[in-house]
Amino acid sequence: MEGVFTFLGAITGHGAGMVVAHIFLVVIIALLLANYATRTLRAVPTGTQNVMEAYLGGVIAMGKDTIGEKLARKYLPLVATVGIFIFLSNVIGIIPGFESPTSNINITLPLALIVFVYYNYEGIREHGVKNYFAHFAGPVPALAPLMFPIEIVSHISRIISLSFRLFGNIKGDDLFLWVLLMLVPFIAPLPAYLLLSFSALLQTFVFMILIYVYLAGAVLMDDEHSEAL
Fold first, then answer.
1. Is 229 a residue whose pLDDT tops 70?
2. Do the Cβ atoms of 188 and 180 come closer than 8 Å?
3. pLDDT for position 138
């Protein structure tokens, strides 16, 4: 947010430099978490290892209900990595003096494009170009000229849906917190932090579950999907 003080913005100035600096900060935090979780692996996990194993188990359970356990494990690296990045990016903006990278459309749009390209690639790799795009034509050949453009527009709209939903919600949360801190900077914002933390978690969950949903639609045919579940 232009004009709002941030610690990194005081060094880099407002603009692209500040956004990149916050991205690097999020990446460093994520790498430190991964390092602490894997530094001394134990059969009975404790500390950071326990948290990360619980997180990965939750991601698999989330995907199991959508795409089946086997494929949930296959796509775990993508979904879990995106989830960690988004959650840390969301949460860091709650801390005064920092800004959420996900409150910038230039960050959420590339994330949505990565998901869009990847799930279409997986669908083409699994079924072939002809069969994959034939699925867009619908079950009735006579309706193919109508269904195909609708499906194309529907898939492209997912880019807008993914990117703007995350960007809009996190940007709104940041503005809400900024205004609240200006009006009542001490005790009053404390309940808001609980609400904003829940919102950060919710937006992360929505983005992750939609990745699994889109992958399921691309990789699994209708009959195979029902069997996998």
1. no
2. yes
3. 81
